[in-house]
Amino acid sequence: MNDKVILKINNLHKYFGELEVLKGIDLDVYEGEVISIIGGSGSGKSTLLRCINGLERKNKGDIVFEGKKVKRDFTKLRERIGMVFQHFYLFPHKKIIDNITLGPRVVKHTAKDEAKNQGIKLLEKVGLEDKADVYPAMLSGGQKQRVAIARALAMNPDIMLFDEPTSALDPELVGEVLQVIQQLAKEGMTMLIVTHEMGFAREVSDRVIFVSEGQIAEMGTPEEIFEAPKDENLKRFIQSIY
Ligand code: ADP
Ligand code: MG
After folding, report:
1. pTM summary value
2. pLDDT digit string (tens) for 72-115?
3. Which ligand is nearest to the CA of 85?
4. Which of 26, 38, 89, 203 is deepest in the core (most CB within 10 A)?
5. pLDDT digit string (tens) for 39-48?
6. Rounded Cα–Cα distance for residues 173 and 184 (Å)
7. Distance (Å) from CA 16 to ligand 1 centroid
8. Burial category of 61 from C-beta neighbours within 10 Å (exposed 0-12, middle 13-18, buried 19 and up)
């Protein structure tokens, strides 16, 4: 982590109809920083990530990426920000390698061989080089999620967003996915991770954010958040988890 702010979120508001889901989020993300986002169901965690990469349109506030305010150019931004979802969303009728090379081929017009070579390297990185030519249905949930991570990395993003990447997995498959994310952290990838894996959040994060009712109710180091929580809702949340 260094002292360059790569992503700045200023006074972000999001409504779904009458419902105000994000009520003024402010956050500076430093290059190489790992931030875990914790909070109860319905507090706005997914909406926050989705607004950051433009999957949801914000209603108010600014997103500043690498010093430039993002206006209508969310398509460009999405190439720089990778996202991994709870439910993988691999293309079922495409081989694993083709799932990974599709983005670079279509969006970046990367040559076929080059995209494939990169894809194989990424599969090696997530420990699945032997699965290049099989279809998603032949993989376990943990393997599918590792492919989804490789697919996001294929676009060579500056930031990775993870929305509960292990919540849909059987318990014995959680570790293999967390290990891949941990490796990315070691390599200096900037990441925002929504997770209920508190042990993992504690270990991997530079900062932890507690979201409650659409606001950042508390933000601090893992020690501050888990050992000495101040916000009453955070105290209750931590007690409910352990
Ligand atoms: P979390 O990820 O913390 O569980 P979400 O960001 O998914 O919370 O949701 C926050 C609130 O916004 C919830 O009340 C949810 O029902 C609502 N919400 C989320 N997505 C939509 C949508 N597309 N349309 C209407 N309401 C939504
Ligand atoms: Mg969510």
Report:
1. 0.96
2. 778 888 889 999 999 999 999 999 999 999 999 999 999 999 99
3. 2
4. 38
5. 999 999 999 9
6. 18
7. 8
8. middle
> 24 C-alpha to center of ligand 1: Å?
16
E-strand spans in the chain? 5-16, 19-30, 34-38, 60-65, 68-69, 81-84, 159-163, 190-194, 207-212, 215-220
d(CA 161, CA 153): 11
Structure token digits, residue 74: 């969310």
Residues 11-33, buried b or exposed e (16+ Cβ, 10 A)?
A: ebbbeeeeeebbeebebebbbbb
**Residue ID of nearest Cα to ligand 1 atom 24:** 16
**Ligand 1 proximal residues by C-beta, below 6 Å:** 16, 21, 39, 41-47
Nearest CA to ligand 1 atom 7: 46
| One-letter amino acid for residue 213 of the chain | E
